[in-house]
Amino acid sequence: MAPILSKHQKIALALTVLSTCGVKKKKRNSWCKKWLLLRKTLSHANVLRELQPDDFKNFLRMDESQFENLLTMVTPFIEKEDILMRDTVSARERLIVTLRFLATGASYEDLKFRAIISPQLLCKIIPETCRAIYLSLKKYIKMPTSEAEWLETARGFEKKWNFPHAIGSIDGKHIEIEKPSESGSLFYNYKHFFSVILFAMVNANYEFMFVHVGTNGCASDAAILKNTTFYRKLMEDKLNLPQPCPLSDGCVPVPYVCLGDSAFSLNRHIMKPFPFKEISHEKRIFNYRLSRARRVVENAFGILVQRFRVLRQSINVNVDNIDYIVLACCVLHNYLLKTSHARYLTSKSVDREDVTEMKFQPGEWRRSERLTPLEKCSTRQRNEEGNNIRNIFTEHFSGPGSVPFQEHMLRVVKLSDE
């Protein structure tokens, strides 16, 4: 009779049998692909240490001192603690890959081999860092809040662009995006692609004073502006604008105005060009003077897209993250203008009118892809108050407010609405 084994003896016997049968342990899948372990030696962060100053600037669209200053500001928002058996992506690496994404528009799949970060992690890091950039730099986008500040802005337009009583140049552009899931035609615009709209007001120095992003691409031109807090405060007289005053001696008081193109509706605070069909010479002079001053917003958008090429192609990220990507580009534009104006904005970057030689030199940005403008507004609705104010400006520019070069430059410069 076979001996009866105890419980412990049975367990020992079973373990012995398993060990002698050559049972192989299941090989555990590695939680991390081997190439991702090379981030400390092969990523963007290591390449930057070897770059010359000009190469550094081309790589990230800013010099090293600007980068280090920005890193100090965003680190509290994006720094993560290391976890067991793994080093987290540092704040420096997060900022570098995000700036590279904004500068080039490269896909997450392309960036993963350059930054040595998986696409799954990049889709979290980049939107989070864009938000941190915006929160850290939003102080660089500042709209005047007092009468004195508005007067200073208006003096800038009059001194640089010969347009009195101007408080800002306004425009809107379509930012192309991939169709969001289950969105139908909500983001489908008049140019037959999907987009969100960036509206901005710019001062005489190409700086954004106000930006609004996120209106869906199918929205009407009227809705785009009217959906902004800026417009509501403007029309309710809550911006602390200076009181209307004459453009010259003997002239009736005129309010301070924004300068727009044919996409906007004319009213007491927004000037737009006259339609070009059968207009008088005086009205063409007004259109030239308006275009000369309003061009600062066109150039601001042109520089923005040239520096941050993510805006030049269809942005393929979750629609909830698009706003912060666009806002990050806008605040970086102002940050770089303020901290390195001469390097960021060269004489060839923007349109130039040489009123001595009577020549017009287009900005470099005009040779590359541009953002899609808003659809032109129908002229059927007539605003009598706005039209009367525009007529006062028209008389002023062909009278006491004329400038010596306007007749010749009118023949040289092609106006965008002609």
TrEMBL record:
Residues 170-334 form the DDE Tnp4 domain. It is found in: Nucleus. It holds the Pfam family DDE_Tnp_4. The keyword Nucleus applies. Its main location: nucleus. This is DDE Tnp4 domain-containing protein. GO terms for molecular function: hydrolase activity; metal ion binding; nuclease activity. It comes from the Eukaryota. One of its GO terms (cellular component) is nucleus.
